[in-house]
Amino acid sequence: MESTISIQKAIEQKSGKVKLRGWCYRERGSNNLIFIVLRDSSNIIQCVLEKKAVSEEIWKDAKKIKIETSLEIEGTIKEDARAPTGFEVLIDDIKIIGLCENYPIQKDLSKEFLADKRHLWLRSRKMTSILKIRSTVFGAIHNYFRSKDFYEYHSPIFQPTQAEGGSSVFELPYFGKKIYLAQTWQLQAEPAIFALERIYTIAPSFRAEKSVTSRHLTEYWHAEMEEAWTNFNELQDHSEALVKNIVKEVLEKNLEELKILNRDPKLLEPTVKKKFPRLTYTEVLEVLDKKANMKVKWGKDLRTKEEDELSKLYDTPIIVTRYPKGVKAFYMKADPEDDKVVLGFDLIGPEGYGELIGASQREEDEKKIIENLEKQGEDPKDYDFYLDTRRHGSIPHGGFGMGVERMISWICGLETIKDAIAFPRTPERFHP
Ligand code: 4AD
Ligand code: MG
Fold first, then answer.
1. Tell me, what's the pLDDT at 156?
2. Strands, DSSP E only, in 85-169?
């Protein structure tokens, strides 16, 4: 036989000769029989080698196969209800490609050990499934924005200023000067809407948040959009449609992966079918008081605790609008009808997954931006390039940012955001 096919293709073929390659996922043997579960990126399949069916040389070689040995197998596939994926390959020929001595990952190892061996743990069925869903999510984000005629646009990662608060910005030496890692693409994205009008990106963002939580990474992938001439309602519509599209694509493409992750797809369906509730911050405080007996003083930001209680009351994400000015970023537009709040919103994920999206209509008034910057102890001179956009044909506009790992974490039902990315970066770990 000339060419190999994937395990999934072989299963779809159902019978006849097949040539496969992959890694030994499990193995057990006796004097006359060796069972190998072969794994490739597409699936797993049970293969059997009978001593009497092959030459002595092949049999001797096959005895060396251990977990994660890479192999090429030729044989005949047939249905077998007892096999893990319902099919079995009776081996005619087997070739070892790369031996594997003492694979360190066995059952029931600690989280720390698995994090140390992350480069090998990626091969687990859990991580493989998450990474496949992650790929769908990235594709769905591109599909959504391109279908709405957005241009893909890129801001620099090396930035001259902070944008989301000085306490969480990474500062680096830069040829005798200081520079910051991007917390958001936003300040260099807003200038580009005057050229392109509708833009989006998916890029890494960095946050020097010391707290170790199930929701925070120091490096995460940020899907951001910015749109000219938009208004606050249209912005909410975009965020809702984007989330619906992502979940819909995952439900179309990744039911098998969700099953491997023990994630019930029914929990995701309301998000596709139902309209997301939209409440103001002030209404949320009333709801929390009435339905969760939780009192929050007006003006305080919603904490994890409050977001989690709120999410328990709904089976879809919730859009919370019009937060107090004091808890939000300097660029958010003050509500023309109530100066105490901003035209910003957070989209809170279901099941306690927290803020998935942060958004706002942008302040157009240069003076107000300067005032906000000064209140935060920033020097407006550093933001002159940004303020310039307000002086030269300013327009109503807005945008949002989605934490892609937060989205994946919720879709997959993960215990921690760290598993939503191949090599997570946290305050405690940047290796491997
Ligand atoms: O709410 P944030 O800080 O908003 C911005 O950065 C805006 N400039 C976005 C924009 O309007 N273009 O961050 C946006 C999202 C959050 O809702 C959250 O999902 C995610 O980024 N995020 C994090 N994800 C993982 N780890 C962290 N440390 C995160 N910090 C924020
Ligand atoms: Mg936010």
1. 98
2. 87-98, 151-152, 158-159
| Domains of the chain and CATH, by start | 7-98 (2.40.50.140), 116-420 (3.30.930.10)
d(CA 34, CA 29): 4
> What is the CA(122)–ligand 1 centre distance, in A?
26
Half-sphere exposure of 386 (CA within 13 A, CB side): 27
Question: Mutation test of ligand 1: which of 201, 207, 239 has the most ligand atoms closer than 8 Å to its C-beta?
Answer: 207
Give nearest CA residue, ligand 1 atom 29: 216
Residue 401, number of CB atoms within 10 A of its CB = 23
Give every residue of the chain whose pLDDT is below 70, as ranges.
none
**Contact predicate 325/342, CB 8 Å:** yes
Reported as a single tens digit per residue, the pLDDT across 77-97 is 999 999 999 999 999 999 999
Report the separation in Å between the CA atom of 207 and the middle of ligand 2, taken as the mean of its atom positions: 12
Give the rounded distance of the alpha carbon of 316 from its chain centre: 18
- pLDDT for the residue 152: 98
Task: Give the alpha-carbon dihedral of 226, 227, 228, 234, to 10 degrees.
Answer: -130
Name the residue at shortest CA distance from atom 20 of ligand 1: 403
pLDDT of residue 109: 87
Tens-place pLDDT, residues 292-304: 999 999 999 999 9
Q: What value, to the nearest 5°, has the Cα angle with vertex 104 and ends 99 and 106?
A: 110
- Give pLDDT, residue 411: 98
The answer to whether residues 45 and 88 touch, using CB atoms and an 8 Å cutoff, is yes
Instruction: Look up the pTM and report it.
Output: 0.97
Tokens of residue 430, six digits: 């940047």
